[in-house]
Amino acid sequence: MKELAEFLAWYDQQRSRPGSTVATLPNPKFCDSSGEELISFSTNNYLAISTSQRMKAAAIEGIERYGVGNCESRLLSGNLEIYADLERRLARSKRQAAAMLFPTGYLANVGTLSSLPRVALLARPVGFTPSSCSSYAYFSDAFNHISIKEGIRASGAARASYRHLDLNHLNTLLSRSTATNKIIVTDGVFSQDGDIAPIPDLLQLAERHDAYLYVDDAHGTGVLGSRGGGILEHFGVASDRIVCMGTLSKAYGSIGGFVTAETHIIEALRLTCPAYGFTSTLPPDQVFAVNAALDIVEDEPERRERLWENQRYLLSKMQELPYRVISCATPIVPLLIGNEARADQLATALRVRALHVDSIRFPAVPLGAARLRIQLNAKHTRRQIDHLVGALCEISQLQECCPLV
Ligand code: PMP
After folding, report:
1. What is the pLDDT of residues 61-106, one digit of tens each?
2. Alpha helices in 209-339 (DSSP H)
3. How many CB atoms neighbour CB 376 within 10 A?
4. What DSSP line would sit under 299-329, residue for residue?
């Protein structure tokens, strides 16, 4: 325990240093210390449905019918029909054959990616023998979400990281690999940068190298595509090579995660993925809430339209300000600040102006690439966005720390 004890003493010293680059816990979100309400520009609730009457009524109905928890896993007595119904609906929303639910999006990534290379291995004691020697390798975008990186690491398979969105680099790595099973992994929308992966080009590479393509659609689900189906709908792509992951905790306003793919992959994962079979299920009320969310996504397209109008409005206003906007592709609009202490200082200055914007810093992004990550939602008003823009303009002149990059 020597290193841990030394680290804890060091951390204690560092975090009280002015301008320190070590992270501290963020303040609670919606109220400042005087209890005053803040306008949040940092929530994943893109369609602003988590507090809607339809979602709340659905969750209450779920509680009335099933209680507050299911208290079992799917492989044992927890396999309620409502889960299978929701899975069918989620699979349809991604235009894929089958889906499986997980208690969170994080677990969906960790569970699926750690299990895929072991599915066949687990079948050996019950008689499966591969016709030839086989090996697995992951090829993962350097900016992928931490849950992807954790899942890949836990799989024990070979892994290579390609430079962010650099398809030439990916092609080189794929060409050099001798693995017999290759899996390309990418975020659909990159959570800290807000840019979008070129899925059709990635799919072409997957075809050329006989690889699977795993897409994390956490931030695209409900947001991208003409009907909110996510990144596959946005690009109009479909393929049995694609495994798509989504969360229920962002645009769908609830909690949970899911993976969609062709039927055999899902069936094999159900039996071999411990993060699915050896943990308790989503609480039934959340299943009811997500069904309501899917209804809302279908019959209230104005929420998605409003979200994108807000995104365009903010971007048009940002042109006049001295910030570097990292990307303009999605409702995630990150402003590159660079220095960690400067990013925190600006977030605090916004807070004083009744605005909550997260300062994102190492280890979520590389050291020296700290940012203010603005996320729009459907409920923001023009007045609130104007207030944010005015505040950003005012605080860009603050000189106490380092200048803006
Ligand atoms: N993938 C990405 C790209 C994410 O941004 C997140 C959440 N921040 C997750 C996965 C995990 O999803 P959840 O919060 O539903 O566990």
Report:
1. 999 999 999 999 999 999 999 999 999 999 999 999 999 999 999 9
2. 231-235, 263-272, 274-277, 284-299, 301-318
3. 26
4. H-HHHHHHHHHHHHHHHHHHTTSS-EES--S
Model confidence pLDDT, tens digit, residues 337-391: 999 999 999 999 999 999 999 999 998 999 999 999 999 999 999 999 999 999 9
Q: Which domains does the chain have, with CATH numbers?
A: 27-49+301-401 (3.90.1150.10), 69-298 (3.40.640.10)
* Token pair for 56: 């709340």
What's the one-letter identity of residue 28? P
Q: State how far Cα 71 lies from the chain centre.
A: 26
Mutate to test the pocket of ligand 1, among 195, 247, 259, 282 (most ligand atoms within 8 A of CB): 247
Does any ligand 1 atom lie closer than 6 A to the CB of residue 292?
Answer: no
d(CA 303, CA 227): 11
Using only the alpha carbons of the chain, give its radius of gyration. Answer: 22
Whether the model pTM is above 0.85: yes
